[in-house]
Amino acid sequence: MKLVLCQLYPEHLSIYADRGNVQVIRRRLEWRGIELEERPLRIGEELDPEAADLYLIGGGQDRDQFLVAEDLLRHREAMHRAVAGGAAVLAVCGGYQLAGHRYLAQDGGEMPGIGLLDLETLAGTTRMIGDVVCECDLGDGAGARTLVGFENHAGKTLLGPGSQPLARVIAGHGNDGSSGFEGARSGSVLGTYVHGPLLPKNPWLADWLIQRALERRHDDVELAPLDDRVELAAADAAAARR
Known about the structure:
Mean pLDDT: 94
Strand content: 25-35%
Oligomer: single chain
Radius of gyration: 17 Å
Number of strands: 14
Structural class: alpha/beta
CATH topology: Rossmann fold
Order of helices and strands: EHEEHHEHEEEEEEEEEEHH
C-alpha cells in the first residue's frame, strides 16, 4: 500500500513549521508499513489530478501568497478533479485563504482562490495571534475531539453555505474573532488557521487525512492503532496554556 502526497509550493507556503505536517504523515505511515511518495508542486510545473492522494497547502506571508496565487489558479480545474476523484486536502492559513474564492486586501486588491471551499477572506487591521483550542467533530462517529495549535493571521474568513466550520472555538480567535468558528470543511477538504504545526499535536486528524487519502485507491482501509501518549500529552499541555 502506498500514499502519494503533493505539497504545493513548499518553498513559499511553509511557515510556522508547516513542514512538520509532512513529517507526521511520513512517520505515521512508516510505523504502519505504508510507503509514502512525495511529489511537490513548484511554480511553473504541471499538476496531474490523478497522481496524488493527499494535498497539503501551507501558510505564507502575503507576498508569497500573491506570488503563488496566479500559478495556483492554473491548477483550479485539476484540483477540483482531484477532489472529485477522492483526494484529501489540508489547507493551512495562507493555503486556507487560497482554497476559498478570494482574498480582499485593505487597498482593494483581490487575490483569487481556487474555490475548493465556499469562503472568502477580508484583510483585517488586528492580528489574531496565540494558542487556540477548539472542539472538532468530523462526523466519522468518533464524536467531538479537542483540536489545538497556534494561530497568527489578520485575515477574517467568512464561510458561505457550501462549507461547514471545521471546529468550534473554545479559546482563541478562529476564523474572524467573533463567529466562534475555526476553519472550514467540505467533504475531504479541510481548511484551518491552526499552525504549530497542526498534525503533531492532533494525531487523530493526521489519521483521518491518511485514511481518506488511502481510500482513494484502496477499499476497506483500517489503520493499525498507534501509541499516541506523547502526542496527546503535548496537546493537553497546549490546551492548558489557554
